[in-house]
Amino acid sequence: MKIKKLITTIAIGVGLVAPIFNGNRTQVVEAASINSIAKQNSYVGVTFLYKMLQTQNIKYNKFYANGNKIKYRKGKPEGIVIHETATPGASAYNEAIYFNREWQNMYSYVHAFVDSKQVIQMMTPNYGVWGAGAIANNRFIQIELCQETTRNKFAKSVNNDAIYAAKLLHRYGITPVHASNTGKGTIWSHHAVSRFLGGTNHTDPDGYFSKWGYSMNDFFDLLKYYYDLQAGETVTSNVPDDNTTTDDTSNDETTNTDPVSQAPTGKRTLMHDAYTYNAQGQRTAAALKTAGTVVTVAQEKVINGKKYLQIGENEYVVASNIVGSNRVLTHNAYIYNTTGIRVGTTKLLKGKTVRTYGGRINIGGKMYYPIDTNRFVKVANFN
Ligand SMILES: [Zn+2]
Q: What would the CATH number be for the domain defined by 3-231?
């Protein structure tokens, strides 16, 4: 991180020397209660930065574009580095906006910012970031915890942090082993990276944690608790990329029971990630447009027997990405979010007609239909 941030970290660290000697006994009691407060909170889920920015018309400055891809040395992440921002008063939202705007100037980027209210994933963890020096950057996922001002909010924030990290471990098939004390394992504090691997000299999150009578050991316990809990869940606990894998919608018109009847024109939202096609129905080289993108539809056009909507000069998207198709549920169905996590306990009942958008989407190995930009129902429930 920036020099300024480093200085702040040291200042906080020094300021905390006194409270640390309050006695081990007190610390243990407090630490235990942070985790028990944490567990009383539900997870906030993941907010994807690029989607968040879309709603505010802010440009997403993609970190891993244009040759700036940091490939992991073993092809996938080997573990997770836990950071703390050392920036009092800055929420995950503040940090996300700031890093999106400034990363090219400050040579720093991470995979996610977490606070008591949000987990904002900045980019896919499939590639590395600039978070903890040259040795760690092509090995680990990097997550920043933001500072909170009350004990309850702190507990909430570490709860979100631990659940998110545990999901990532499952996603990449990583076993949680605490590395901060030994230099060997999969869960690292930034401090441990500085100590055992080098290439960086920060000591977070230790100083901030100890302010709350908390430690990396406590955090690891919480993470391990959720990792084990998630292992027993039937629902996939994967956290997808910011680019959810998607079928090419052009191959998925066979079950369309509600052919597009009226052409929607004007500003419309893509309900499914969509490729663009030319007037001959050939896919263009333009980047995939993600669900949630607002486009202006000029007209409907049938190309090779299939309905498209024109969104630019010689630029079309498959109509079902915007207007959807009605499908009848053959089973009661739960609703899932972009991470494949069930949203509440609301059940859509068997026999109900549901409007789905575009083709099937693979989330964590299971196939879903979008019913909204960030809500999904399993394809199996329509068979
Ligand atoms: Zn750090």
A: 3.40.80.10
